[in-house]
TrEMBL record:
It comes from Stieleria varia. The chain crosses the membrane at residues 6-23, 35-53, 59-77, 89-106, 112-128, 144-162, 177-195, 202-223, 235-254, 263-287, 307-325, 332-354, 366-389, 394-416. The keyword Transmembrane applies. Keywords: Membrane, Transmembrane, Transmembrane helix. Residues 10-133 form the MgtC/SapB/SrpB/YhiD N-terminal domain. This is MgtC family protein.
Amino acid sequence: MSFVAYQAIAISLGLGFLVGLQRQWSESETAGIRTFPLITLMGTVGALLMKNVDEDAGLGWVIAAGLVSIAILLAITNIAKIRAGETDLGLTTEAAALLMFLVGVAVGREMFGPAVVTSGIVAVLLQWKKRLHGIVGRMGEKDIRGVIHLALIGLVILPVLPDETYGPYDVLNPYNIWRMVVLIVGISMAAYVAFKLLGKGAGAFVGGIFGGLISSTATTVSYARQTKDSEDVTALAALVIAIASTIVNIRVLFEIGVVAPQLLAVAAVPIGAMLVLMTIECGVLFIPLRRQNATPPDHDNPAQLKPAIIFGILYAVILFLVAAAKNIFGDGALYGIAVISGLTDVDAITLSTAKLFTDGTVDQSTAWRVILIATMSNLVFKAGVVAVLGSRQLFVWVAILFGVALTGGGLILAFGDGLIDWTGEWIAPITEKLAESASTAEP
């Protein structure tokens, strides 16, 4: 036998011990610290024995026979438990045993990476039984419905949409439009899940971060209303609103990296400068307020079909308008569209501009300016929300914070190209590497 074969046996033994250790610690009566290594080794040895045999003739039936044999042994074990009067049998250990046999086969086939990852997932899922059950127990009907809607949005609707371009300017592709919907819903849903698990108990700082990822506008509305009832939380509400608005810049950079990786290499400098400026503002305000608390908002589940459809329509409209304005009026008209669309939704104008940059319709200098103007317009809109819904003191806080940010944004718009050139020598390799990594993954 070659060294690789002995290596496979050693890896298989280690992975079997990993899962077996967890099952032994959990006091499983079906399989434990000895049985799981044997099951994994059985799969590996079976794969090694048939390695030099024609796969179509030999490997298939050997693996199938081994899998059936283990299934029979597990069935016999459960039958014995039933005869002994046990009623709470469960299927987790049995499923893990069958999967670890296949892991052993993968190791024997020298698929070491997938085998190790799969074994780690198995061990974590087994160990996190109470934690996962607790998470499900804390989920309400709204959360379950959100998971179903997410599956509907990403796994049912997307695959059936036509991947063809319709209409003038060649920009309206149903598949690509809905793919952007999946991206935005996915980002918001991930933040929503994290907020449910950690946000409510982690303070205003984390609440602001999750609020920016889920919906900075909804976060602004919620905290502004709180100051109407209690002005004691005004400064803290201003901090959370500022943090949520700062996180929007990170969200924008991520969206650009997914849709237009090459644009990220340029846009990272001006938008990153805006991010740094607003982060400094948040840091200055955070130090004296870090121990205060306010009631976090009860965010709506972002994976809902109606808002997803509305966003898809909005994205398509903005995509069309940007392309038409560019064709008819030139680049100058794009800035007006950015101001209007950014008032209510930064994602749509960001994604549409990035898409048009990828198609060659918009140049990089115009693209990052359009996106930055949209984020600045969104700050103005949220300041208006605070003026209407919040206390006068909160509006003063937000006006100062956003005023500084808007002033900085204006300077970035004016001198952004020079800033890009100045930082290009040392930041370009980083952004290009990030762009290359992003371009290898489909959004």
